[in-house]
Amino acid sequence: MGNLLKVLTREIENYPHFFLDFENAQPTDCEREVWNQVNTVLQDSESILSGLQAYKGAGQEIRDAIQNPNDMLLQERAWNSVCPLVIRLKKFYGFSLRLEKALQGLLESLTCPPYTPTQHLEKEQALAKQFAEILHFTLLLYSFYSLRIPAIQNDFSYYRRTISRNRINNMNLDIESEVNNEMANRMSLFYAEATPMLKTLSTATTNFVTENKTLPLENTTDVLSTMASVCKVMLETPDYTSRFNSEDTLLFCMRVMVGVIILYDHVHPNGAFNKSSKIDMKGCIKVLKEQPADNVEGLLNALKFTTKHLNDESTPKNIRTMLQ
Questions:
Q1: CA gap 70, 72 in Å, rounded
Q2: CA-based nearest residue to 227, from 98, 110, 104
Q3: Residues of the chain with pLDDT under 50
Q4: Residue 175 and residue 66: Cα distance in Å, rounded?
Q5: Of the candidates 274, 254, 279, which has an alpha carbon nearest to the alpha carbon of residue 264?
Q6: Percentage helix, strand, coil, to 5, in the chain?
Q7: Transmembrane region positions (predicted)?
């Protein structure tokens, strides 16, 4: 590791000279409390992911019911197919709220005085790893969520139409205690987003900055830009990537790098792409483009479609061209 740091110090003068141990970081006593809170949320991420992966929707049942409005059996079948799906969507929505809270808790820990963001990331590697895991999970969701959007929106709008119709007919439905009108409205706004979970995280980060008025904005943006820089250096340094125990760590690093760029772009007034940005966007995109296309297509799309400032006039043409 010593030699590696020498290599890095030679190559890169402005970057922090440390690495994020995404494979083995363990919480210290000081990190334990926040780590435990976040860990209870992260433990559920796998079941959320597999639940969404397995989401097929009730498209056929809904079509049959709509085409045969007087066939009560088909109406019942569609309704019985949609209800468990709506419960699953509520669970997914509830998870996004917990994830938002977890992210804000981590931001609080990684930005508070007296340490600088770099010192925080260096000292609190286990919290930095959890922050990374939230971003990794969200980018992983992004990569296949778009395939499920039509089914989710179709199922949910059928649910809301049926609930409204039954309310007019004074029919009480058990599921309303689970997903009432107010909850349905909130869920509807959430699922109307092209990338609900990414949107949740960027809004959570923006709110964190707005609500903590005494905390300098740089404390937050520097945590994000430092993580982006460290991930980039880890990815472009063969001496380091060859030490990863798993090939998944490479993908993990890429997703985290893209995730922090997206958050930085939403939170920093000038965004991530312009010349004053503390993130070397050209270098980050170059690193991604050197990877197998299958691994990075979704990530390049995320940079194209979920950032805020890419199409600003201040974005250098060569950066825009790289992402075309």
A1: 6
A2: 110
A3: 1-16
A4: 21
A5: 279
A6: 70, 0, 30
A7: none
